[in-house]
Amino acid sequence: MIYHEKRVRLPKPKYIVFYNGTKNQPDSMELRLSDCFENTDNEAPCLECTATMLNINYGHNQELMKHCRRLEEYSIFVQCVREYIQSEPSVEDALEKAIDTCIHQDVLADFLKKHRAEVTNMILTTYDKDLYEKTLKEDAREEGREEGRAEIRAELNEFKLLNKYLLKSKRYSDLERATEDIEYQKKLLKEFGIE
Question: Per residue in 152-165, is it b (16+ CB within 10 Å) or e — as a string?
Answer without folding.
Answer: eeeeeebbeebeeb
